[in-house]
Amino acid sequence: MSDIAARMNRLFNPDSGRCLDIAVDHGFFGEAAFLPGIEDLRSAVDTLIEAAPDAIQLTVGQARLLQGRGGRERPALVLRTDIANVYGSPLPDHMFDLTIPEPGLAGVRLDAACVVVNLFDLPGQPRVREACIRAVLEAKKDCERYNMPLMVEPLVMKDSGTGGYGVNGDVSKIVPLVRQAVELGADIIKADPTDNPDDYHEVIRIATGIPVLVRGGGRVADEELFRRTEAVLAQGASGIVYGRNIIQHPNPAGMTRALMAMLHDGVDAAGALAILAAAS
């Protein structure tokens, strides 16, 4: 067993080898548009814990809502350790990405299964990418000190046309940034879906054996989300990191259970829709 395997094993289901990580760390970024569904974060986390995903992604200030719960079966903690101001519209004059001090140690203190940092590729903002690379390198050094797995989130963005950034699903842009994240020492990759889901095997291949979790992004229709999930799993993804598509859903628990059935029981998109309908 490798030095980080014990923590990695807490993230990934032992039978399927996959992980559902539900991100509810959006308040870290200071954007009002990210808060619907998590205004009462304690209640939202309690609902998710009862639905039993593999992991819940929280910040240093809110990890207590998960880790304060008793019992051995609670989801693993994925700890968000950096904060950026690149999601607003219009964009600020100065953009940044800042990492908390000693992220690996923070993960140990909060009993996290891994910590996560960003690797942005933003149009016309090479300094933000440089700051991210420095942050990943520093986080890797600290994580190695404590045998803490490092999740890197390579995000390629494009001008949205409305004064902000949107997701760039161009596989030719995603692939080199994912590879850079692996080269920098990522133990887990969290990456955007490609515009054509059938291209996702290229992202998996470029990660050279490092597990890839697919990011959910903004809210979409249930059918689209399940179809996308089925497609990326078929292409070799090791799981998903969804936030708003779960926490902003009318039935977050039902959505969680439907997605868990897809990841761990081999249920297809139609089956997931049926599970969700039965839970409503």
From TrEMBL:
Name of the protein: Unannotated protein
InterPro entries xrefs: Aldolase_TIM, DeoC/FbaB/LacD_aldolase, DeoC/FbaB_aldolase, FbaB-like
Lineage of producing organism: unclassified sequences, metagenomes, ecological metagenomes
Pfam families: DeoC (PF01791)
Organism: freshwater metagenome
Transmembrane segments: none
GO molecular function: fructose-bisphosphate aldolase activity
